[in-house]
Amino acid sequence: MKFKIPTVLKASEILDKGFRRASKISTDSRYRRERRSENISKVTSAGSTISAKLRQYVKAFPSSDQVPPFYFDLIDLQVGMGEMKHSLGALDWAAKRIDAVVNEAVKDIKRCHESGEMAAIQKRTYGRISSIMSRVEKDLDYLNRARDLLKKMPDIEMDLPTVVIAGHPNVGKSTIIKKLSTAKPEVASYPFTTQEIFMGVMEFDRSRIQILDTPGLFLRPDEDRNLVELEAVAALRHLATLVVFVLDPTEYCGYSWEDQLGLLKSITEIFDRPTLVVMNKADMGVPEGRSFEGALLVSGETGEGLEEVEEAIKKALAEIPTEAAPEPWAGED
Predict the structure, then answer these.
(1) CATH classification number, 11-151, choose in 3.90.1150.200, 1.25.40.10, 1.20.120.1190, 3.20.20.510
(2) For the packed helices 81-111 and 137-151, what is the interaxial angle rounded to 10 degrees?
(3) φ and ψ at 110, to 5 degrees?
(4) Residue 202 pairs with which residues in a beta bridge?
(5) Per residue in 153-197, pLDDT tens?
(6) Which letter does DSSP use for residue 250 in this model?
(7) How many whole angstroms from its chain centre is CA 39?
(8) pLDDT in tens, 30-63
(9) What is the C-alpha separation between 276 and 270, in angstroms, rounded?
């Protein structure tokens, strides 16, 4: 899902746009009727240009009933669904208020007999419109920042099988997904490299499978998690058809073997998704006593064992009953 939202202009820029368009309207003002027509056209043009721009933003931003649960959680985490709804409501109010001010001005101009009075009504109307726009200036600024964040969200196809790669930071998740799919995550030898969700695609027998690299998790309750951890939780909760959990038996990731096994146990219990366990960094050797039944031994660095991982993913997805997978989101009725 891609959010196609236009750049949100500042209040002063929207006002300039409306007043500049109105200033281009000109009639033969030798006659009172023409002067009246010109004043009416100017306030109408300015008001409709500005209110139309506000309504464009209201329509472009997603509402809570227009997005799948995963995106709802992601928007709420990054932007704040309540704050976004409040700001969009403020823009809708401003558009309606501007329309009302313009309608009132048109009626007043129609009753005028002096050109000076008509010009004064036009000037006063511009002032009232400017005052209304000043009241939503902060909402426009907020929505522009929200728009930038929405544009960076991963484009997930909700009807495709989705493999979510999970584990502690620095266990090699990004290296593995880079080898398995088309995703191009940043790979580095320090924790917290993945600050957002990366998506790639795997091809199996003419079928497409999404594979997501998520931020590293810790063994702690949701209320203690940071933003990037909660993004990973949202992917596990709403998207995962299959979880590939990556362990680092060398502990070079900076987290103990016991902590990693504890996180694996927590994820399998909480999310109840089929889980494929992968032990990474096989090229560095596996210390004695660190094993996990059924785990695949791989090296994301050299590619060793990744073909077996691909086959295991394919087999696991084929064995998952349709009713056990996350239900595709079809939108609201």
Answers:
(1) 1.20.120.1190
(2) 130
(3) -65, -25
(4) 209
(5) 878 888 888 899 899 988 988 888 888 876 554 433 333 334 557
(6) T
(7) 43
(8) 555 667 888 999 999 999 999 999 999 999 999 8
(9) 16
